[in-house]
Automatic annotation (TrEMBL):
InterPro entries: RUS_fam, UVB_sens_C, UVB_sens_RUS_dom. Residues 1-101 form the Protein root UVB sensitive/RUS domain. This is Root UVB sensitive family. It comes from Vigna unguiculata. GO terms for cellular component: chloroplast envelope. Belongs to the RUS1 family. Residues 105-232 form the Root UVB sensitive protein C-terminal domain.
Amino acid sequence: MAVVASRATRLPIYSSFAKEGNLSDLFARGEAISTLFNVVGIGVGIQLASTVCASMQGKLVVGPLLSFIHIYSVTEEMRATPVNTLNPQRTALIVADFLKAGNVSSPADLRYREDLLFPRKLIEDAGNVRAGRALHKAIRPSKLIELKQVFPGEKFLLNGDNRCIDMVLEQDAIGEDALRGWLVAAYAVQFDKSSHELSNSTLLQAYEKMNEVFPVFLKELECKGWHTDRFLDGSGSRFAF
């Protein structure tokens, strides 16, 4: 009961404080409320134990119900705070929105659209990009030099077809590099939706298009509050020459 009550009460607090960007206040207020409801929850829990949950039937009903509410509240708590650091899913959503509507979504716009259960799900409108696969699995050694020539000086490599494009990042790549690669992949799929394997000419055409729009795209990202100096790819593999 304590957990459920504190989670439910903290949701609007996370939302309002996150908009102001004051994370220290957010966590301090959240922990204070959590402590308060832990104390209240002890009393409520004792009351439930001596009444509704006194019988086994009551425990079987109340236990799963509170567990469900707990899981739901934790999920909503996670969504309530806009996160302005890029990861694969947020990057894909940003690119998809940019290509469809021409505008850049803010962290607040995306917080309720993130899929917490399947964060690595491919997004077709963003080029079906899969990030973090090992280099030797994503790109044949014979094609590695070709791709480095298509993307000179870049910290990403792309390989695949319109059903799935692998993007591998260099060890020190940041969010800006991931965004550049993601845009190239999305444009490449737009330019050639029928090939089983994207040709170097298609990738080059997409790369040129990306370079045209990227300065404006990056400026809009920074105005919306995104941190492009980091990219959170979890346990994804990176490469180094």
